[in-house]
Design brief:
2 domains; Rossmann fold; 367 residues; single chain; 16% strand
């Protein structure tokens, strides 16, 4: 198949989880014999932090403005088997207009931010990248979130088919590595600053760091305000190149996972960092949310602290052997269920099913 993707970014992982998601999926699709064309707007913050400028597993179309790329987009759409617009794609409206005016057999939306998208649709009938009318014209809504929200998309918003396409990890990159001095720590956290996450970071990392001055903590991720007062035993890394992520996780005695508020409310929303950390055998301490137990078994494959006291308990009282067992079981689980190869096969099946369901007489939507 030839698949055209309009996505936020594949060339940079700076401040976003889309980059690693697209990389693992596109690489796996390429290895399964598919041709991938990826369209990305050349935005300053990604241009200045580009850690994969030339992905060899897809044809990259990097453009400055929609007017400059629209002819190329129409050309690529003219002979593809499926086209996908991703959430937060900056020219989403225009891309959907081109999809619906084309004869593409399967027209899909890949929502890497489903709870945020649905919250905006409920409030405004549209987001900055997709409109309510677009939903009813889709053949396939691919969602990072499973559970009840899929029924709402089909029942309340008129989506023909909403199906989970959870994040995944590249099994060739994400696997246990020897611990290294650069990232050695008792507790780590990787994630871009988000106001709705910070109270949990305060509770589950800053407070334990204050209580355990002899322990070492690392927070990796951009956009944290200068007003945050980090304890002296917390090392800050503003941006960590994706090539070092496995080493980061493999060097953490425990790594912390904290979920955005909308994802917690919706449930069934595992982050790509959650699977990547597990794949590296890192023992994970995570906030809890509905559906988490469908991905990991609490207590056996993941730790679920309720506050700072639990984190302090894990660091003081759990042996390295016990933590390593938890990490090993989590790694076995994700390598069995959430690799990029498995996700690519799921996408193949979803596209084939959507194509079979689409009536032969379907015509392009009037623009």
């Amino acid at each position: 198949m030839k698949i055209v993707i309009f996505g936020l970014s594949i060339t940079s992982t700076w401040g976003n989880g889309h980059g690693t998601t697209y990389r693992s999926l596109c690489r796996a699709l390429h290895e399964r014999g598919h041709k991938i064309v990826f369209c990305e707007r050349d935005q300053e913050w990604y241009r200045n932090n580009r850690d994969l400028p030339d992905p060899g597993f897809c044809t990259l179309v990097l453009y400055d403005s929609w007017a400059a790329v629209v002819a190329r987009a129409r050309q690529e759409l003219s002979d593809c088997d499926a086209a996908i617009v991703g959430s937060y794609f900056p020219d989403g409206y225009a891309a959907f207009d081109e999809l619906f005016a084309s004869s593409v057999p399967v027209r899909a939306f890949y929502d890497i931010d489903t709870p945020i998208t649905v919250a905006e649709l409920r409030a405004n009938g549209k987001t900055g990248y997709i409109r309510g009318d677009d939903l009813r014209s889709l053949d396939l809504y691919l969602s990072f979130t499973g559970g009840p929200i899929l029924s709402e998309l089909m029942g309340s918003f008129g989506v023909a088919l909403a199906a989970p396409l959870y994040c995944s990890f590249d099994e060739k990159q994400y696997h246990p590595r020897p611990p290294g001095k650069r990232f050695a720590c008792d507790l780590s956290y990787m994630g871009t600053y988000a106001p709705d996450r910070q109270s949990k970071i305060d509770e589950l990392l800053i407070s334990p760091a204050t209580q355990l001055p002899e322990s070492r903590f690392i927070v990796a991720g951009p956009q944290y305000p200068r007003t945050i007062r980090w304890p002296q035993n917390v090392k800050r890394i503003t941006h960590l190149n994706a090539r070092w992520h496995p080493h980061f996780y493999s060097s953490s005695r425990i790594t912390l996972n904290v979920t955005r508020r909308d994802m917690v409310l919706a449930g069934y929303s595992p982050s790509v960092r959650l699977f990547e950390a597990a794949a590296c055998g890192a023992p994970i301490a995570s906030d809890n949310w509905p559906g988490l137990d469908t991905f990991f078994t609490p207590g056996d494959q993941i730790l679920l602290p309720t506050g700072a006291a639990d984190i302090v308990h894990y660091l003081r009282d759990l042996s390295s052997e016990e933590l390593q067992r938890i990490g090993r079981r989590a790694a076995e689980r994700v390598h069995a269920e959430h690799t990029s190869a498995q996700r690519a096969a799921e996408l193949e099946s979803l596209i084939s099913g959507a194509k079979a369901r689409r009536p032969a007489s379907t015509t392009a939507r009037a623009s």
